[in-house]
Design a protein that fits this description.
Elements lengths: L13 E4 L11 E3 L4 E4 L5 E4 L5 E4 L6 E6 L3 E3 L13 E3 L1 E8 L8 E6 L3 E2 L2 E3 L2 E3 L5 E9 L4 E7 L13 E6 L4 E6 L5 E11 L2 E9 L7 E3 L2 E6 L8 E2 L5 E10 L15 E3 L3 E5 L12 E7 L13 E7 L6 E6 L5 E5 L6 E3 L10 E7 L4 E5 L2 E7 L4 H5 L4 E4 L12 E9 L5 H7 L2
Antiparallel strand pairs: 1-35, 2-25, 3-4, 5-6, 6-35, 7-24, 8-12, 9-10, 10-23, 11-22, 12-21, 13-20, 14-19, 14-23, 15-16, 15-21, 16-17, 18-19, 25-34, 26-31, 26-35, 27-28, 27-34, 28-29, 29-30, 31-32, 32-33
């Protein structure tokens, strides 16, 4: 095939580029009923007002990441930026408040300082949670004076001594930016952990875990300690009363992965879902009921662990019901899938190793007798030759990005860089080329 045949001759009738344009196409209806945070073009965490879309950037390279879309989440931790508050229990540890610039570039970051005693040096709190559920705790941390790692530890009992050998825990090296060590003991179960640069020496330290697998009511203790590097088991240890680590933005979510930061004070706070759709007279002109093709570049926050049971939606075509819909998603098996009601068309690229926060390019050709999916330049599965596709295509009048069909209980988590719709079917070779 010649090079010209590898590219479509038809012009996209829908061309949404969220990397080049920090604004929404006027055909899009967008809403979010609460404020929400994102990383701005200067690398700092910003707050978007209600109904304001979030065009996010990498906090270190400042490269655009695309339009950020998420489902609803609740931060269960109170006083997420004030560790001196009495809601956080301090054991042989002092907290110096508002001592340095936070990832938001505001003077709101605190410092955890271990007292000059031989002790366990904890900053912790107790929260009663559901049993055998999966939670993700995250906090921004930065090396302060001395050379210390940040240790997060969790257990079903916070009233007794802090024993690293009886709790699940994870240790983050704030100089090298790596997860230094993990333990999985007692009734707490470690699922996954990660550390991500957040700019200006800050890292977001994330830990996903099950706080109690015994079925008993779990009193969860998110605990933080600054421990000298290389002394993972040195509990108790002797502090010097001046050294430690900076911390900011603690967040606890009932989920398999962390989402954008949600600030709290005296009460839990819920961030509402981003809702983005094209309907009615804004939908009809660009959509071809006889057949067409989508090309989309996006990423997902969905965790890369086997315990994750959450799909992450990419887009959805429907008539407003679950009976007539096509949904493209990141599936629970670590790949991408295109599914349709009544099995009109289905293709799946399971176990393809889709890592969280990495850009994926997907193409979907929807045509009676010739429907197929490509992922990163490779066709997924076989071409669907059934004719039933057409019976569904001519019903669609709603296009949603990163949300499922009504009722909207399934969501997308991540960024969209761009999306193209070609109002004519494409060949496998063309979609492979467009998704390389």
């Amino acid at each position: 095939m010649s090079l010209s045949n590898a590219f479509p001759s038809v012009t996209p009738s829908l061309n949404l580029n969220f990397i080049r344009n920090n604004r929404l196409d006027p055909r899009i209806t967008y809403s979010r009923s609460t404020t929400a945070t994102y990383v701005g073009s200067d690398g700092y965490i910003k707050t978007a007002v209600t109904d304001e879309p979030r065009f996010e950037y990498d906090s270190v390279s400042l490269a655009p990441r695309g339009l950020l879309l998420e489902g609803p989440r609740t931060n269960l931790v109170l006083y997420s930026e004030d560790f001196s508050n009495a809601d956080w229990t301090k054991v042989d540890t002092n907290v110096t408040t508002n001592i340095t610039a936070a990832p938001s570039n505001s003077l709101t970051a605190d410092m955890i300082v271990a007292a000059a005693t031989s002790a366990q040096h904890q900053v912790r709190k107790a929260i009663t949670l559901g049993t055998s559920k999966t939670y993700t705790f995250s906090v921004f941390a930065k090396q302060a004076s001395g050379v210390y790692d940040l240790v997060l530890a969790f257990g079903a009992n916070v009233s007794g001594s802090w024993d690293a050998n009886a709790r699940a825990s994870v240790r983050f090296n704030l100089l090298t930016g790596v997860v230094a060590a993990t333990t999985q003991n007692g009734n707490s179960s470690h699922i996954s952990s990660s550390i991500t640069p957040a700019g200006n020496g800050w890292y977001r330290c994330v830990w996903t875990f099950i706080p109690d697998t015994t079925g008993a009511t779990a009193v969860f203790g998110p605990g933080m300690m600054a421990i000298p590097s290389g002394e993972f088991a040195a509990i108790p240890w002797t502090g010097d009363g001046t050294s430690g680590v900076y911390v900011w933005g603690a967040q606890l979510e009932e989920a398999y992965f962390s989402s954008s930061y949600i600030q709290t004070t005296s009460a839990e706070v819920t961030r509402a879902a981003d809702d983005m759709e094209i309907t009615g007279s804004n939908f009809t002109p660009w959509y071809n009921q006889s057949g067409g093709a989508f090309v989309i570049s996006s990423d997902t926050f969905k965790a890369d662990n086997t315990a994750n049971t959450t799909n992450s939606r990419i887009f959805n075509l429907s008539d407003g019901t679950n009976d007539s819909r096509y949904t493209l998603l990141y599936n629970t098996d670590g790949g991408v899938s295109m599914s349709a009601a009544a099995a009109a068309f289905s293709a799946s690229d399971s176990d393809s190793g889709v890592a969280s926060k990495t850009v994926q390019k997907v193409g979907v050709n929807i045509e009676a007798g010739n429907s197929f999916l490509t992922h990163n330049g490779v066709q997924v599965g076989s071409t669907d030759t059934g004719a039933i596709v057409l019976n569904y295509m001519n019903r669609f009048d709603i296009f949603r990005l990163q949300t499922s069909s009504d009722p909207e209980t399934s969501y997308g988590w991540g960024h969209i860089q761009y999306l193209l719709y070609y109002p004519e079917p494409l060949t496998v070779a063309q979609l492979r080329t467009l998704t390389k």
